[in-house]
Design a protein that fits this description.
The two termini are 27 Å apart. The chain is of the alpha/beta class. The chain contains eight helices and ten strands.
Length: 227
C-alpha cells in the first residue's frame, strides 16, 4: 500500500529554543522514524528565535532591507535543515531541498527542506512542497497549542480557535502583508496559497510529541485546523 506523504513545518524555536534541544530532537527522531512504516515525511526546518536574533542584531548595526533580512533568515533555516537531515542519517534523502517546487525522486521516507527565497517564510515552502507531492495536509509544529484570535502573550482574554476557514483566518488573525521575521501562526502568502490549493493546516505545539502522535493516529488532538 502506498504511504501517505505528510509535510511538516518544524519551527526553528523547537530545534534551537535557546540552545540546541537534544532531548526533544531525540524524541522527535524516534516518533518520526517509528511512523515511517505508515508515512513518508517532508520536514521543512524553520529559523525561529535564532533567525530573529540575527535579524534584530543586524538592524542595530546597519540599515537592512526586507530582502537582506530574509536572506539572513533563509541561511539560518538552511543550517537547521542540514542539522535535522544529519540526525536522520541514512534514513533521509541525501540533499537538503532548497527549491520546494523541485521534483524529488527517492525511496527515502524522510526528506528535509529549508527556506527558499525572500518574500515568504518556510510556511510557504511547506505549502509548495505539499503541492509538489500532491498532498492536502500540512502540519505546523510550533511553540503554541492553538491559533488564537489575538496574541495570547499580549492579551489575557485571547481565545483559542480549534477550527476555522482560511478566509476567516486571513481576515481575523493575519497581518495584511508579509513582514520579515514576523511571528504568526502561518504566514500571509502561504495562507493564500494553501487556501487556493485546498490544503488543510494543523497547528499544534511540537513540544508535546504524544499529541503529535495522536494527530498521526487520527485521534483527538490539541491544536487548530485551518481549511
Amino acid at each position: 500500500m502506498k504511504k501517505e506523504t505528510i509535510v511538516i513545518s518544524v519551527g526553528g524555536s523547537l530545534i534551537v529554543p535557546e540552545e540546541i534541544d537534544v532531548s526533544w530532537l531525540k524524541e522527535f527522531k524516534r516518533v518520526i522514524t517509528e511512523n515511517t512504516e505508515r508515512f513518508r515525511f517532508v520536514l521543512i526546518a524553520g529559523g525561529g528565535r535564532t533567525c530573529r536574533k540575527y535579524q534584530h542584531a543586524a538592524k542595530e548595526l546597519v540599515e537592512m532591507s526586507n530582502t537582506d533580512l530574509d536572506w539572513l533568515g533563509i541561511e539560518v533555516t538552511r543550517m537547521n535543515a542540514y542539522f535535522v537531515k544529519t540526525i536522520f542519517k541514512g534514513k533521509a534523502y541525501e540533499k537538503v531541498i532548497y527549491n520546494p517546487t523541485e521534483k524529488i525522486k527517492t525511496d527515502k521516507d524522510i526528506i528535509v527542506g529549508c527556506g527558499w527565497k525572500p518574500g515568504t517564510s518556510t510556511d510557504m515552502d511547506a505549502v509548495l512542497m505539499a503541492k509538489s507531492f500532491g498532498v492536502k495536509r500540512v502540519i505546523n509544529l510550533s511553540n503554541i497549542d492553538y491559533v488564537y484570535d489575538k496574541d495570547p502573550k499580549k492579551f489575557k482574554d485571547a481565545k483559542p480557535i480549534k477550527e476555522m476557514k482560511w478566509k476567516e483566518f486571513r481576515s481575523k488573525v493575519l497581518p495584511k502583508e508579509w513582514i520579515s521575521g514576523s511571528n504568526t501562526p502561518f504566514d500571509v502568502s502561504a495562507s493564500a496559497e494553501a487556501e487556493k490549493l485546498g490544503i488543510e493546516i494543523a497547528v499544534m505545539n511540537g513540544k508535546n510529541l504524544n499529541n503529535f502522535q495522536n494527530y498521526l493516529d487520527g485521534k483527538v488532538f490539541v491544536g487548530s485546523l485551518i481549511n
